[in-house]
Design goal:
Structural class: mainly beta
Largest sheet: 6 strands, mixed
Shape: elongated
Helix content: under 10%
CATH superfamily: sav2460 like domains
Order of helices and strands: EEHEEEEEEEEEEEEH
CATH topology: Lipoxygenase-1
Number of helices: 2
Distance between the termini: 28 Å
Strand order of the largest sheet: 1-12-11-3-9-8
Strand content: over 45%
Length: about 200
């Protein structure tokens, strides 16, 4: 059964997956855009109407070494890490549909040994704040069988346009997860690099 994480919580991925030798994980990001209320002027006065809006959230994975140096980034402009161990499934520009809207697949066994931290971020590329987003989450699932290991709720509004969602990190030859949940601003991870580095 998946763990519902709270901000700041840390878990062992190996233990939460039942100690089955976790080799691949999927970081899934999902969200829905709230409907907009707009005023329409008609023949008999004005009325309000609910209309759909499109919000383009982008998931990214940043790879850091022990010295907190940025080694590589997987995002919508580079869908695979240079070493091939991490892959982005593609950019969803609307949030339409159920389940994961974007996924980043990590092969833990082939992530280079020099990589100590994998940081997952989300940015509103279209600039809308999280006040206009609902049902937002990030989750970690076992890449072999799809079983959800942990989920972190990103909803709750707020005037921010980005968030440092979580990090995976090596500790005593084991991968652990830390739900960070730090709000930020920026259209891409580049706008929040100093804040990301401070969370390592």
């Amino acid at each position: 059964m998946a763990v519902n994480l709270s901000k700041g919580q840390k878990i062992s991925l190996e233990k939460e997956s039942g100690g089955s030798g976790l080799s691949q994980v999927i970081m899934g990001l999902g969200w829905d855009a709230k409907k907009l209320t707009v005023a329409k002027r008609g023949l008999f006065g004005s009325k309000t109407e609910q209309v759909d809006q499109e919000i383009d959230l982008d998931a990214s994975c940043l790879l850091f070494d022990e010295g907190k140096n940025l080694l590589d980034v997987v995002w919508f402009r580079q869908l695979q890490s240079k070493d091939g161990s991490i892959r982005h499934t593609g950019d969803n520009r609307t949030g339409a549909g159920d389940g994961d809207d974007e996924q980043i697949i990590v092969n833990l066994t082939t992530v280079p040994a020099v990589v100590k931290y994998l940081v997952f971020t989300v940015n509103s590329f279209t600039g809308q704040t999280f006040e206009q987003i609902e049902n937002a989450f990030c989750r970690i699932a076992n890449g072999k069988n799809g079983a959800e290991i942990a989920r972190y709720n990103l909803s709750g509004g707020g005037p921010h346009t980005a968030q440092i969602m979580a990090k995976l990190y090596r500790h005593n030859n084991e991968w652990k997860m830390h739900a960070i949940g730090e709000n930020a601003s920026g259209r891409t991870f580049l706008d929040m690099l100093p804040l990301i580095t401070s969370q390592l």
